[in-house]
Amino acid sequence: MKNKKVFNGKKIRLIILLLLTIIIFTGCNSEVEISKNSTKESQELDNKIILEEKIIKISKLIIEHDEDGDGIKDLDDILDGARKDVQNKPRYHSAYYSGGYPPDYEGVCTDTIWRSFKSAGYNLKQMVDKDIKENTNAYPRVNGEPDPNIDFRRVPNLISFFKSHATVLTTEIITNDAKNLEEWQGGDIVVFGKPVDHIAIISDIRRQDGVPYIIHNGGPYTKEEDALLYWHENISPIVYHFRFPEVD
């Protein structure tokens, strides 16, 4: 009987030892899994921080001019006007209109420009018509015969006007280059040349690499989109970049 009790005691100790081993082993595995998860979360956080660090920070330029006296500086006012055109969604339709202006629900790329300027207190049609009358030879597209019903809605004429009355800026775009991209400010004007003459307003929304969006009507209606480099590289190259009003 005594030997049987000893045997039972040994058996019980072995069972306890086995259970302790299982508990310890399971615990170690849990710690490994927790460690793996912790490492994974740490790596994801590090990647997020690195990604955020790669976002180019571009300083905003403030031009101290407020044409309409509404408390909003001109570049911001021009940008606001362009966004109103986006909200109105005028469908792309090229036509000749008596009086010059198309209805609000229609337009082409140049209509986004005068509508943007109107928001800032500028009558672009009036300014272009006046300049054409006084400097007709500076407008080859007019060909010596001004037509106020259409002249201000033609890209070559706007080029001639802005070359004389706006600041001419770089046409180069260098991704991830803050110094270069600071020259591209919301409210600026960009012009694309042949084969498709096109004009747009630069947005203050930027891609991660600092390249700004554009606001334009290239069909089917006015949009704000990541299309500056797309147009430049696939449709028509950038030929001019302006800022209005001209800064001394």
Automatic annotation (TrEMBL):
Report the Pfam families cross-referenced here: DUF1287
What this protein is called in its record is: DUF1287 domain-containing protein
